[in-house]
Amino acid sequence: MAKTALIIQQDLILLKVLERMILSHQYQCKAIRALDELNIEDQSENFDIIISDILFDGIAPLDYVFQIKEIIKHQTLLIITSMGQKKVRQEILNMGHVAGFFAVPFNFDKVETYLH
């Protein structure tokens, strides 16, 4: 069975770059720009990996990560964001269940280690 990935990024260029990276590792991939693009079937899917930003209008980064943890089944959650504030990064990592936090620009090789 193919591994599955969900990418949530508002930045269209970053979304497409991440999607190509995921697809090159033989994952089935759904790439969206916001959570409201998920349908009921997506929410019941158990994704192997979710790669998401944390900067979305109308929701605080910590609340957003909590929502992801609660409403979408997944094995691994990676945050890739242009928000590089050390305090926010540490608070999110302290929440648990977040495998990695990468500020843009990021090292692709380090992200790819989560795809094997």
Automatic annotation (TrEMBL):
<protein>
    <submittedName>
        <fullName>Response regulator</fullName>
    </submittedName>
</protein>
<feature type="domain" description="Response regulatory">
    <location>
        <begin position="6"/>
        <end position="111"/>
    </location>
</feature>
<dbReference type="InterPro" id="IPR001789">
    <property type="entry name" value="Sig_transdc_resp-reg_receiver"/>
</dbReference>
<dbReference type="Pfam" id="PF00072">
    <property type="entry name" value="Response_reg"/>
</dbReference>
<dbReference type="InterPro" id="IPR011006">
    <property type="entry name" value="CheY-like_superfamily"/>
</dbReference>
